[in-house]
Amino acid sequence: MSKFYLFDGENRFLFAGDAEEARLEEVMNQTEGEYTLLKVPHHGRLAANNETFFETVNPEYAIITSSDKNTEEEVVVSALEELGTTIYLTREGNIQVSSDGNSIQVVQ
Fold first, then answer.
1. Each residue of 2-28: b (16+ CB within 10 Å) or e?
2. 21-78 pLDDT, tens per residue?
3. Helix, strand, coil: what percent of the chain each, to 5?
4. How far is it, in rounded angstroms, from Cα 59 to Cα 86?
5. Kind of pairing, strands 61-64 and 11-15?
C-alpha cells in the first residue's frame, strides 16, 4: 500500500485525494489513531463508506477542493460537521496550513 499521510510531531495529515472506496477501506483497516487534518477525497462527493471513513480518521480539520462549478456535497459537509471538524473549502479561497509539530494553523 502506498502511503498518503504525513506526520509532523504530534500532527497527523491524511491526503486521501482520489482514493476509491476499496482504498479508503484499506486506510481504515490500517489507520492508527485520528488525524489532525484530512484532505477530503473526491472533492467532497459522497462515496458509500465516507461516513465510516470520516469517523475512523476523525479529523480536527478538513480541506475540500471544490469550485463554484463542482461544489462539495452537503451530506459530506454534514458528516464532518457532526464530528466537530472545522471545514475549509478551496472555492472560498486559498488555504495555507502551518505545523510546528505540536499544533497547526490553518489560514484562508
1. eeeeeeeeebbbbbbeebeeebbbebe
2. 777 777 777 767 789 999 998 778 776 667 888 999 999 999 999 999 989 999 999 9
3. 30, 25, 45
4. 8
5. unpaired
Q: What are 97's strand-pairing partners?
A: 106
Angstrom distance (rounded) from CA 104 to CA 36: 8
- Cα angle 88, 65, 44 (rounded to 5 degrees) comes to 85
Show the cell assigned to 62. Answer: 478538513
Beta strands 11-15; 5-8: pairing state: antiparallel
Grid coordinates belonging to 85: 471538524
Whole-number Å distance between alpha carbons of 21 and 19: 7
Q: Bridge partners of 89?
A: 64
pTM of the model: 0.87
